[in-house]
Each structure stands twice: as C-alpha cells, then as structure tokens.
Amino acid sequence: GRLLRLLQTLASLDWPAPPRLVVLTSAGQRDGRASLPPPVGGALWGLGRCAANEAVYRTTLVELPLPLSGDTAAHLMTALLDPHSPDQLSVDAQGCWSPALAVVPDDGDAAAFHARKDRSYLVTGGFGFLGRAVADWLVERGARHLILVGRNGPDEAAEAQLERWRRHGVAVECARVDVADVDALSAAADRWRDALPPLAGVVHCAGALADAPLADTTEEHLARTFAGKVTGAWHLHRLTEGTPLDLFVLFSSFAGVVGSPGQSAYAAANTALDALASYRRARGEPAVSIAWGTWAG
Fold first, then answer.
1. Strand partners, 96
2. Residue 168 burial by CB count (10 A; 0-12/13-18/19+): exposed, middle or buried?
3. The pLDDT of residue 109
4. How far is CA 104 from CA 101, 107, 207, 229, 252, in A?
C-alpha cells in the first residue's frame, strides 16, 4: 500500500524531467532468503512493472540478498549509475543479472504425471471453470479422492460434473470455505485429516480481478485481489508445511510478468505467488507458479 501511494504521488507531480524510482527488495525473487514474508517483495515487483508501463518516470526493480555485503553494494551502485543498465535486476556479491524469457523444451513431465489413487488432491476455486478443469485433469490421471474448495458452493454445471466423477468411482469432498479465512480453512483441514486419505497435492486456482489504471487503484483493489489469491496461498503453504506433497501448484498470470497496464493490483498479487513458489523451492518444498495467459470459456 505504501508503494502504491508513492507511485501515485510521483505520477501526480509536475517534474521538469522524469525522475527515476528504485525499488529494492529482498524477498525470494531468486534464492528464497527474505526479510519479509516472500509474497510481500514479490508483490512490489508486480506493482513496479505496471508503473514502468503506465507512469512517466523510470522505475527500476532490484532484488538483493541479505545481509548486504560490500561487493553487492558496489555492484548495485555501478548498475544504478549506468544509464543503460536494465530496469529489472538481481544483484549479489558476484554481479548483476536481469530476467529474460526463454523457450524451455518440453520434457514430458506433465504428460507422464500419474495421480496417486490412495491420496487426496486439494483444488481451490474448485467449483469454477478453472477448478473443474484442473480436477478433471487429475481424475483423468488417476486421482480418486478430490477436495474441492470454494467461497461459493457448486452451481448446476458443477453439480453435474461432480455427479459424473462420482459415478466413475471418484470420492469428492466439497467445502464452502474462503481460503483467506485461516480459521475456517484450518477447521476444514482438521476434518479432512480425520476422514480422508493423506494429501498429495494442492492446486490453488482461486482468485479475483480488480482492474483499474494505476492512478485509480486503491488499497481496496489490492485487498480484494490479495485475499483469496495471496493470503489463501500463504495459508495453504503454512497448512501443508511438513506434509510430503507431490505437487503444490499456484495459478499466476502473465500480467505480473509484463506488468499489464490497468492491472496493477492483479499483477502484484500474481508476482507474490511467483515469489512464494521460489521461496518454497529454496526450502526444498515442491512448488510451481504458472503465469497463464488469456483464458477462454
């Protein structure tokens, strides 16, 4: 919220020449070490990327390791004093790196995935289009125990799909729970532990949009997009700590990667998920954050 207000204040002032804003974070962009919970620093990158596309001033994002060494500080100052340096950097004692998109060959892992029939798989946003598509994918790959979670109960289309799965021998547990509500989620998890096979995977599809130009974005926009998507992801992370999961999948968005204009709150929420995935992987826990493009249907 403080960064949002700063971005808006800078944009509202009459500058003789556009200034340069440098945002320094240390929250798991690269190596998982963090001074704040990892989603916080990741969210700043999403906001900063949107500012770079919407604002007149130059925005530079820098991820740093802590504690800050003299060599790291020297590389940082060299980069900031160079007018041609990239505006997205990771800096440490060895030097500076900037992110780049690259084509990664398909190793066939997704096609080879087989769900475990004696384990449970949790899908948030489970009654919506994305959640049902993911659950269907799991069932096709052998899952026989599903836990579908959503703020709203299943509608007619979801009920029909639930019935089809059940006719094919799939046990489906439905829970009307807001994953941003840690007490409600914890209570539901206690019931699942007692009644269902152990958890093997989590797919977090829940989320909401709150689009607005950066100048009109409010903390309420941030709160609305962060509640289910980021707070919910953090609760799922804490809830499953120590559980030997096969997969922990977060549904992020390309909006955060490119800083889509008009989607600063949404971009911030999704880069927070990306940072959480990096944080988990640095701790040896499974995680992947998928930056989806546009969905149809």
1. 91
2. exposed
3. 63
4. 9, 9, 27, 27, 18
In the block, tokens 């709203």 appear at 152
Which residue stretches of 29-148 are H helix? 38-54, 70-81, 109-112, 129-140
pTM above 0.85, yes or no: yes
Q: Is 259 left (phi over 0), alpha (psi -120 to 50) or beta?
A: left
pLDDT category, 282, cuts 50, 70, 90?
A: confident
Q: Is the N-terminal amide bond of 213 cis, ω within 30° of 0?
A: no
Torsion, Cα of 223, 227, 230, 231 (10° steps) = 120
Residue labelled with tokens 């060599």:
71
Of the candidates 195, 175, 199, 188, the one whose C-alpha atom is nearest the C-alpha of residue 124 is 175
Amino acid symbol at 138? L
Contact 217, 265 (CB under 8 A): yes
φ, ψ of residue 292 to 5 degrees: the values are -65, 150
